[in-house]
């Protein structure tokens, strides 16, 4: 294991540890002050039903997305094709959870507050931008990089798809970085909004001195986890090394002019 791998694993472990710890403290607050999952979950107006939004959006959307973001860089011990499948798998969990989390919170807001309840905080505006961009990214990713087009298309059409794939890959990376940042910011804003609503409930148990330790620790850890993961995924030094034996020796001289070897490239070609 080289210095690159140690750094990538170090960043990944630190980021995931902070994100899990921050999410766990945020969840502990929901259990201690906001009924956790104890109330009737078939009643869409309860706090527990609302807490499903947090469960889906944080644990089944943010975290799988984070794992998907690091899977190419950290899992170099598996083939690139399998790393791609893992990346798609994690993001498919995120895709399904984000749809479920949205439908669920929309229903909760409607049933609890009527038409007044929709889209009135920065969390909801930024949340909608996040979902729109993420859903576009998932659909484009599946269409371009997961469907085995070679089984269905002619050679000419394959060339067209190949060009599209190559042309879009930098944008796919850039949108992926932005999506992760947006998801983390949406979660931070969501927690802040929810702590704030708690203070307005006039619940004697929900006093500043009781809630602040949860709020301070959870928000700080999630923020630090987000920054550490961003430091890893935007750093081109840590992109997955290309396989050394991609080209046969007799092809190297002709291909080199078009596709240079990794070791001849001063800066990795995949810039943000
Ligand atoms: C990427 C993650 C998330 C996304 C995309 C997201 C998206 C949304 C959307 C679109 C709404 C508005 C629904 C409506 O108005 O009908 C909403 C509401 C809400 N969400 Fe999230 N959410 C996320 C994570 C979280 C988390 C982790 C919390 C933590 C408690 C949270 C707390 C809330 C609250 C309190 C509301 C009520 C509406 C408000 O006052 O803002 N959300 N969310």
TrEMBL record:
GO terms for cellular component: membrane. It is found in: Membrane. CDD domains: Cyt_b561 (cd08554). Pfam families: Cytochrom_B561 (PF03188). This is Cytochrome b561 domain-containing protein. Its cofactor is heme b. Gene3D superfamilies: 1.20.120.1770. It is a multi-pass membrane protein. Keywords: Electron transport, Heme, Iron, Membrane, Metal-binding, Transmembrane, Transmembrane helix, Transport. Residues 14-240 form the Cytochrome b561 domain.
